[in-house]
Amino acid sequence: MQIPIINRSHHPLPTHATVGASGMDLRAFTDEPIVLDPWHRVLIDTGLSIALPKGYEAQVRSRSGLALKFGVAVLNSPGTIDADYRGEIKILLINLSFQPFMVQDGARIAQLIIAKYEPISWQVVSVLDETARGEAGHGSTGQI
C-alpha cells in the first residue's frame, strides 16, 4: 500500500527494519536537544505528515528498548492518527524514570503501525448473547 507523506525533517522516512516488523521507527525532529525530566512529559515533532486512506489508522506506540532501558514511553500509547488528520505527527513522551533523559535530533522515539479498521454502527438491543465468560471482568481469569 502506498501512503502519501510529507517529510519536513532531514531524516529518512520511517521503514520496517525487518521483513516481519509491523512497526516503523519515528524520529525526533528538533533544533536542539530536549531534556525530559523525571515524571515530566513533552510533545516532540517528527516533521512528518501523512494522508491515510479511509478505513485505516496509524497507531503510535512506545519503543520497547526506550521503555526498558530508560523508562521513556509514549504517554497515550497507542496514540491514534485518524485517516482525516493532515497535521504533523507529534509524539507525547513521558519519562517514568528517576533520571533526566535527553532527546537528540534524529533519535528513534516511537513506533508507527498502520492498521485497518471497520466503521461500525450501533445496534441497540435489550440483551446480549451469552458466553462462557459472561460479565466476569478484571482479574477473573486468575493471577498467573
Short synopsis of the structure:
The chain has 144 residues and is mostly beta strands.
CATH hierarchy class name of the domain at 5-9 and 22-116: Mainly Beta
Mean pLDDT figure: 95
Going by CATH, the architecture of the domain at 5-9 and 22-116 would be Distorted Sandwich
The radius of gyration is 19 Å
Q: What is the global morphology?
A: globular
The number of E-state strands comes to 10
* CATH homologous superfamily assignment of the domain at 5-9 and 22-116: Deoxyuridine triphosphatase (dUTPase)
Number of helices: 1
The end-to-end distance, rounded to whole angstroms, is 40 Å
What characterizes the major β-sheet?
4 strands, antiparallel
Structural class, from secondary structure content? mainly beta
Order of secondary-structure elements: EEEEEHEEEEE
Indicate the percent of residues in helices.
Answer: under 10%
Report the portion of residues in β strands. 35-45%
Unreliable runs: none
Please name the CATH topology of the domain at 5-9 and 22-116.
Answer: Deoxyuridine 5'-Triphosphate Nucleotidohydrolase, Chain A
Cofactor: Mg(2+)
Family: Belongs to the dUTPase family.
Binding site for substrate: 63-65, 76, 80-82
Enzyme class: hydrolase
